[in-house]
Amino acid sequence: LMPSNPKNDNSFLERANCRAKGGASGFKVAILGAAGGIGQSLSLLMKINPLVSVLHLYDVVNTPGVTADISHMDTNAVVRGFLGQQQLENALTGMDLVIIPAGVPRKPGMTRDDLFKINAGIVRTLCEGITMYCPHTVVNLISNPVNSTVPIAAEVFKKAGTYNPKRLLGVTMLDVVRANTFVAEVLGINPIDVDVPVIGGHAGTTILPLLSQVKPACSFTAEEINYLTNRIQNGGTEVVEAKAGAGSATLSMAFAASKFADACLRGLRGDANIVVCAFVDSQVTELPFFASKVRLGRAGVEEFYPLGPLNEYERSGLEIAKKELGQSIAKGTYFITKA
Ligand code: NAD
Ligand code: LMR
């Protein structure tokens, strides 16, 4: 039991509530799946983000402990925990940004699509909650298979009449984070100075790094391009195998998700030139969803950048990516429309 404030005049609660009102002074963020491998580290990183005034931690297990722990950090955000479906309403009400890392992770030998069976239903339930309790929020969807869960979320929102394509973003930032890291290694420079666009989707060959568009401008040998493309496309599997049954990327993912959420919040605040790669409702290709560079603003996704000139290697990679991506999107859409 939490000891009561010795002042016993509710001043702590008043101050907390005052801070919690946020508005000009910060955003309200919920993490669904907050007690998981990604969720715990992500909760920590969002608690130290100065743009966050209220942080809601929701899961079906263990949120009291995670919340008590995180809430002792002496940073501005007021932290509240929510446990189980009956507390989803309070977890979601009033949120500006909802980040979803809920769902099962891969084990060695599995594809991300093997997670569909369990995670599709989890994402549907959580998104139904969003349509009821915070229909205007920005959503950052992390749960795999992202290529299908984003279309699932879109259909749930459409069904409820609350779909705003500018506010639904599949998180592919980890592919960019990995690409920056591996490219920097090859170039022998600091990854902070590297920017690699990664387009397509978030699974195997649907992950397409555009190595011809790396900043700073540079060139690679055919061997380097093969190595880098394969390593970026299989980065997730590399971690799954190294963890040997104990799950998939959590720490680098929490880092990537926190970078991505921070970009969304800065966009919502009205900062200029916030550009990220994200898997979104898109007309950049003939597919209904596609990951590419977008500019974020107060409305969410405000501008799409063209893919730019692709070399032959990238053009053939794009054709392969689009084929698999189309099937994964259709599978997600059908999961909701069939009912
Ligand atoms: P984890 O098992 O450690 O944590 C998942 C959490 O979700 C658990 O705490 C679980 O209780 C919770 N959960 C399950 N059902 C829920 C529900 N209905 N409502 C709320 N919470 C629920 O897994 P993890 O390693 O944190 O990975 C989570 C998901 O993120 C997996 O699907 C994984 O594949 C995916 N992932 C995506 C990326 C990406 O780049 N987009 C990267 C890494 C992992
Ligand atoms: C990743 O890229 O690390 C995640 O999608 C998790 C996984 O299953 O590979």
TrEMBL record:
Active site per database record:
H202 (proton acceptor)
Which Pfam families does its entry note?
Ldh_1_C, Ldh_1_N
The UniProt annotation places NAD(+) binding at G33, A34, A35, G36, G37, I38, G39, D59, N119, I142, S143, N144, M253
SUPFAM superfamilies assigned to the protein according to its UniProt record, in alphabetical order = LDH C-terminal domain-like (SSF56327), NAD(P)-binding Rossmann-fold domains (SSF51735)
Question: Which stretches make up the Lactate/malate dehydrogenase C-terminal domain?
Answer: 172-335
Q: Which CDD domains does the record match to this protein? A: MDH_glyoxysomal_mitochondrial
Swiss-Prot/TrEMBL catalytic activity: (S)-malate + NAD(+) = oxaloacetate + NADH + H(+)
- From what superkingdom does this record's organism come? Eukaryota
Record-level GO BP terms: glyoxylate cycle; malate metabolic process; tricarboxylic acid cycle
Task: Kindly list the positions annotated as binding substrate.
Answer: R106, R112, N144, R178
Entry GO CC: cytoplasm; peroxisome
GO MF annotations in UniProt: L-malate dehydrogenase (NAD+) activity
Q: Which InterPro entries match?
A: L-lactate/malate_DH (IPR001557), Lactate/malate_DH_C (IPR022383), Lactate/malate_DH_N (IPR001236), Lactate_DH/Glyco_Ohase_4_C (IPR015955), Malate_DH_AS (IPR001252), Malate_DH_type1 (IPR010097), NAD(P)-bd_dom_sf (IPR036291)
Q: What is its EC number?
A: 1.1.1.37
Family (UniProt): Belongs to the LDH/MDH superfamily. MDH type 1 family.
State the oligomer form and interacting partners.
Answer: Homodimer.
What this protein is called in its record is Malate dehydrogenase
Source species of the chain:
Zostera marina
Upper taxonomic lineage: Eukaryota, Viridiplantae, Streptophyta, Embryophyta, Tracheophyta
